[in-house]
Amino acid sequence: MKRADKALKIGELLDELYPTTPVPLNHSSAYTLLVAVMLSAQTTDKKVNQVTPMLFEQANTPEQMATLEVETIQALIREIGLAPTKAKNLQRMGEQLVEGGGMRPDWEYLESLAGVGHKTASVVMAQLYGIPAFPVDTHIHRLAARWGLSEAKNVVQTERDLKALWPEDTWNKRHLQIIFFGREHCPARNHDLAQCPICGWAATKKRILQEAKR
Hints:
Radius of gyration: 18 Å
Number of strands: 0
Helix content: 55-70%
Number of domains: 2
CATH architecture of the largest domain: Orthogonal Bundle
């Protein structure tokens, strides 16, 4: 099956399974979503949602975050992976946003903030500002390879490949649909590809052999 045909079929199945795509990270503004996404690196969304209520009680604006001591922030997010580094970035990010006049839908501006990479900025642009983006994390990168939609060695190229396969007006929901599907049907390990609603017919021979060796 051609890659484009495969993507079309996968997209139709994802639309059936996930007609709505709520953002899994709790937030009340573009800024709080930015913070939550930044915290989610190497940590589950569930854990982030457990920690952010306490954090946002004290700092749900850049101005408030900028005034907190790094040690205070770290104590509030101590259960999150890489807490020391993230605490420093949060405090500095608050300062940068105050200096820059707050949040705005500007790629260069968002990606210049401490602790904010392209993927984090992409989530905010897509889910808060409605600007077409296709955030690719390690999970989407893994599924794109498993389904034969990309042979990329990094998330940057995987993003390009996936953007080329689906219409721009589907990008914002598609990346969330893939995440939801991965969590519910397509785990990284001990996965029976034959029983998977997508892997059962989309997985490449190369991927099937690789999975069998695990």
